[in-house]
């Protein structure tokens, strides 16, 4: 008797069979057909270098190649235009040259691009006189000379042949070289980070953490409704601040004034004066729990984000709500500010990231690539880029338009927090207590950490809610669900030999979405 299956099962099996059949050929290069390759190259030659194919070849090139006709594998006729005259130059394509004066020409440093006449002249000026005289015999002619030699005036170029086309050439691939599959560049080596201090004192989950600009102390906010200030060097408690009536979800210390700002699930946003250790301002307006806050680096503006699906911009001094940033359709989990445009970036549980125009109070760009809640966003301190964390992936983006760079896959958990330092170490902390460390440029995951919970805690209380580098970037502080703050530092004894990068230059298979 034939067993009946649902349409869903049959379709799934068919897909699986197709996948198994073709998976071995995935990402393999298509075999090259010599005949069609020859025709393609001949067409490329004629289209891109048609105006210079008639030109004579250099004597030294002839000697190397053993005659005028041996160098052309595609059977093009070599025109002997200036018979009897001394051959001065050669243009048969792009010529390798170093990226700057005084750089030795090797396979790694060579650049292949057709210089414009002005660029060639400026390069000749930059070179020493003797070197420029020697190189003059070897460089290609200027664009103007090419057209004059061909009997065409510079002004009356054929409509299809623009100077830009003659100047075109790849960075390391000329038009005639077969393209290779992109491979992942070798990641920079980073020493591993090790746990060296565990600080306890809170009576609830530690939800947020911030280091003050002078790097003397740091501040934490907790589910026990208190804000605590700790000495960074010794880890000793300096001060406890009470005033919130629910979990404290965000803290930040101002670099422009002696103020500490905090927000919590009690819908309150408070400004504390650290000279008197008292609340001096409240910012009223959010309709639900306030999940995060950030200060603008150059103007006295505070930005908060909330479960009410909005972010609000506040004037620090007057307490006025300057803008309400509406557009998200679910809780806004994280907000970041920067001096350059776009000045405000938000991540939300509606799976989108929005880049905002601070002046107009409107969305500039909405990024919809994530499939799950975006709980963390971090801006690179030096590059004009940022990263966002979600259970599906960590994604890197370029400012100002939010162009996608790459995915950092492998941290399969709810990512609560991201931090990055100037060395290009990206840290992602997750709800299950795991912490992954990545090389920012290549996206290589060089270390995974899962620290034990403090004695007396359940294993289920393993979770990282926030992490931050101190101002020297030599310490990493994490705020955790076992009510502790853990401090990590780089292992000074580690070397590239003892902790090698287990990296293979495999072909990149990056998903766009």
Automatic annotation (TrEMBL):
Database matches in Gene3D superfamilies: YVTN repeat-like/Quinoprotein amine dehydrogenase
GO BP annotations listed: mRNA splicing, via spliceosome
Gene Ontology cellular component annotations, sorted alphabetically: catalytic step 2 spliceosome; precatalytic spliceosome; Prp19 complex
First and last residues of every WD repeat: 199-240, 241-282, 283-324, 325-366, 408-448
Swiss-Prot/TrEMBL keywords: Repeat, WD repeat
Keyword match Transmembrane helix: no
CDD domains from the UniProt entry: WD40
Pfam families in UniProt: WD40
Tagged with keyword Repeat: yes
Highest taxon in the source lineage: Eukaryota
Family classification: Belongs to the WD repeat PRL1/PRL2 family.
Purpose of the protein: Involved in pre-mRNA splicing as component of the spliceosome. Component of the PRP19-CDC5L complex that forms an integral part of the spliceosome and is required for activating pre-mRNA splicing. As a component of the minor spliceosome, involved in the splicing of U12-type introns in pre-mRNAs.
PANTHER family reported in the protein's UniProt record: PLEIOTROPIC REGULATOR 1, WD40 REPEAT PROTEINPRL1/PRL2-RELATED
Quaternary organization: Identified in the spliceosome C complex. Component of the PRP19-CDC5L splicing complex composed of a core complex comprising a homotetramer of PRPF19, CDC5L, PLRG1 and BCAS2, and at least three less stably associated proteins CTNNBL1, CWC15 and HSPA8. Interacts (via its WD40 repeat domain) directly with CDC5L (via its C-terminal); the interaction is required for mRNA splicing but not for spliceosome assembly. Component of the minor spliceosome, which splices U12-type introns. Within this complex, interacts with CRIPT. Also interacts directly in the complex with BCAS2 and PRPF19.
Designated name of the protein: Pleiotropic regulator 1
Organism per entry: Buceros rhinoceros silvestris
């Amino acid at each position: 008797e034939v067993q009946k299956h649902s349409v869903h099962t049959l379709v799934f099996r068919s897909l699986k069979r197709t996948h198994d059949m073709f998976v071995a050929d995935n990402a393999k290069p298509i075999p090259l057909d010599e005949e069609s390759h020859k025709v393609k190259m001949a067409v490329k030659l004629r289209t891109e270098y048609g105006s210079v194919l008639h030109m004579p070849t250099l004597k030294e090139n002839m000697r190397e190649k053993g005659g005028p006709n041996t160098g052309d594998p595609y059977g093009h006729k070599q025109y002997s235009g200036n018979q009897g005259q001394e051959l001065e130059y050669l243009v048969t394509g792009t010529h390798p040259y170093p990226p700057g004066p005084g750089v030795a020409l090797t396979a790694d440093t060579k650049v292949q691009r057709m210089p414009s006449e002005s660029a060639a002249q400026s390069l000749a000026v930059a070179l020493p006189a003797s070197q420029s005289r020697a190189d003059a015999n070897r460089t290609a002619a200027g664009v103007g000379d090419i057209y004059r030699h061909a009997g065409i005036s510079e002004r009356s170029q054929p409509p299809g042949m623009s100077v830009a086309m003659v100047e075109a050439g790849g960075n390391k691939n000329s038009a005639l070289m077969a393209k290779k599959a992109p491979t992942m560049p070798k990641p920079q080596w980073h020493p591993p980070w090790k746990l060296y201090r565990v600080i306890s004192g809170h009576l609830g989950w530690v939800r947020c953490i911030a280091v003050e600009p002078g790097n003397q102390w740091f501040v934490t906010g907790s589910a026990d409704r208190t804000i605590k200030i700790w000495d960074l060097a010794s880890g000793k408690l300096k001060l406890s601040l009470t005033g919130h009536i629910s979990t404290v979800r965000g803290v930040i210390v101002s670099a422009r004034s002696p103020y500490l700002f905090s927000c919590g699930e009690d819908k309150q946003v408070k400004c504390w004066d650290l000279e008197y250790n008292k609340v001096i301002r409240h910012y009223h307006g959010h309709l639900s729990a306030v999940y995060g806050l950030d200060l603008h680096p150059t103007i006295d503006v505070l930005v908060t984000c909330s479960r009410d699906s909005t972010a609000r911009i506040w004037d620090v001094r007057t307490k006025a709500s300057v803008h309400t940033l509406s557009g998200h359709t679910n809780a806004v989990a994280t907000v970041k500010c920067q001096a350059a445009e776009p000045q405000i970036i938000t991540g939300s549980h509606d799976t989108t990231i929005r880049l905002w125009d601070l002046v107009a109070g409107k969305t500039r760009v909405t990024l919809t690539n994530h499939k799950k809640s975006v709980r963390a966003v971090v801006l690179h301190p030096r590059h004009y880029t940022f990263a966002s964390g979600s259970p599906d992936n960590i994604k890197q983006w370029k400012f100002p338009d939010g162009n996608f760079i790459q995915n950092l896959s492998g941290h399969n958990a709810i990512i609560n927090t991201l931090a990055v330092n100037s060395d290009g170490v990206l840290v992602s902390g997750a709800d299950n207590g795991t912490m992954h460390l990545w090389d920012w440029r290549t996206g290589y995951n060089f270390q995974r950490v899962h620290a034990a919970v403090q004695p007396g805690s359940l294993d289920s209380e393993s979770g990282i809610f926030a992490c931050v580098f101190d101002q020297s970037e030599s310490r990493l502080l994490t705020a955790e669900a076992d009510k502790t703050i853990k401090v990590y530092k780089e292992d000074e004894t580690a070397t590239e030999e003892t902790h090698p990068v287990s990296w293979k230059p495999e072909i990149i298979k990056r998903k766009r979405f």
